[in-house]
Amino acid sequence: MAVNGAVTWLRRAEEIDGYDLSASDSEEVHVLAVDDSLVDRKVIERLLKITSCKVTAVDSGRRALQFLGLDEKKEANGFDGLKVDLIITDYCMPGMTGYELLKKVKESSAFREIPVVIMSSENVIARIDRCLEEGAEDFIVKPVKLSDVKRIIDYMTTDFREGEERRRGINKRKLRDDGDGDGDRSLSSSPPSTLSSSSTAPCSTSTSPLDSPTRRLKMTSFEEHIFADKK
Amino acid sequence: MEVVQIQRRLVDYTKSLFMEGFLDGQFLQLQQLQDESNPDFVVEVVSLFFDDSEKLLNELTIALDQPNVDFKKVDGHVHQLKGSSSSIGAQRVKNVCIAFRNFCEVQNIEGCLTCLQQVKQEYYLVKNKLETLFRLEQQIVASGGSIPMIEMGF
Known about the structure:
The complex is a heterodimer of chains A (231) and B (154). With 231 residues, chain A is α/β, with parallel strands linked by helices.
């Protein structure tokens, strides 16, 4: 994908230490990844590093807020060197869900501008809509692939130059993976009661019939990667 | 054995794992993330999966052995196992987890116990297969060869 040279995130020269908090290199996208699964954290971290991002990976919404300086127990001081450009969070987590984290971020005057992307293994339209309504930038269905991460970082960086409108356009197109371009968004989310129990109990929604078409399409886009140049 | 022969064996073995459904495309994704700067990435992630899974299987065994089974708790563990198996491409394990969760939802203890048995079986099978795969890779690297990239046309 041809991107203006000003976007330096394309370079992959050095291995970036995601835990180097002292240097605030504003040219690299700094991503805060939140997932309670150790396996998934490791994968998302690698995916982001390969896309030339700085990564900080934490295992809970609470820790994410602490990192941002939003935790009630700590004072919100100036974390200048730790500027976060993007938050990627799992939806289903014990304690604070990704949705609750999203809300807290969007409610904060200091951090509401930070784009938040939700990841979930459940491809449920109601859940996706709920997150988007709360201000999420995008929604990735797990398992996360390199193409998902690349897409997010791509439009995030172009967005800085081209503004909201384009992002919204890409957003809709990418979410409707099954080609159904028409936004059925007038269909309001199903009553929150079905999902409200997610705060303490693990998320218990049945898998959507949409799983199959999404799965097939994911395999198609993956094929491209097998035959494309590795770098 | 010649390096080329081991490489051939590895390719055939890997392909068979896909054909038999033990692994799916996500495993290939992980392999794509491995390079000279991260030569052990796949082994590391899979090792985390092994540790995580064994813990979960233990907890599931205990939880389903209780006089009053807490199905929400059981479901929580299965959800985790489903997630991590999906993330590394352990397709058969993931599929049993899907069925397992359905039984949790309707609180069917017999169904859950059957699924527990099945998921253990599938887990140990894929663990065995992956360990064999890694051993072949080690042999190749030790003989100075490079690990061949698998190309799959789905």
